[in-house]
Amino acid sequence: MIEIEKKLRYTPENEKQLAAAAQFIGEKKIHDIYYDTVDYALTTKDWWLRRRDHGWELKTVIVSGNFSRREIDSYHELEDDESIRKALNLPHRGTLQDDLESAGYHPFADFVTTRRKYRLDEFTIDLDQVDFGDFSCRVGEVELKIERTEDMAQAQSRIVNVANRFGFQMGNTLGKVVQYIKARRPEHFQALVRADVVDE
What we know:
The chain has about 200 residues and is of the alpha+beta class. The protein has a single domain, classed as Beta Barrel (Hypothetical Protein Pfu-838710-001), CATH 2.40.320.10. It is built from 6 helices and 8 strands, in the order βαββββααβββααα. An 8-stranded antiparallel β-barrel has the order 1-5-4-3-2-6-7-8, surrounded by 4 helices. The radius of gyration is 17 Å and the shape is globular.
């Protein structure tokens, strides 16, 4: 499955407009722990390995680099242990967590997100808020899942139309974990800038 998404900034007024047109699915808390190596082997490729609540997920970018010119993000989303092992070339010796730690993957961010989820036709729209203690962030995401890479351009156009419809603030919005890295891990953030995963 290919996940096409656009991260956005949003206001309470944007959410009010969205709520009048879309189906509210619900609100929940999400606990994410992100992993990487000491030399940032994953995140500098725009790969994101996390333990979300009780399961593992790995997002691998489809079109990498040129962050400043990237209108939409597109990722393969792996949600089963064997697919993650294969992508990371990770031998099966113990649990996935044990094998990741043996291979040098360690947590670098741990936080809880309050997520309000909406559905509009085939689109999923998540509105997230995170309080990191010394700062907080509010990031929205319009997402569409497709089966074929040939459908990416059309999916991107449709996502932009939805974002414009509700007045979301577009641009190169940093995701929650990247905002955390920028604030708390400056060396890590500069490695992402040098790798053209993010803009400074």
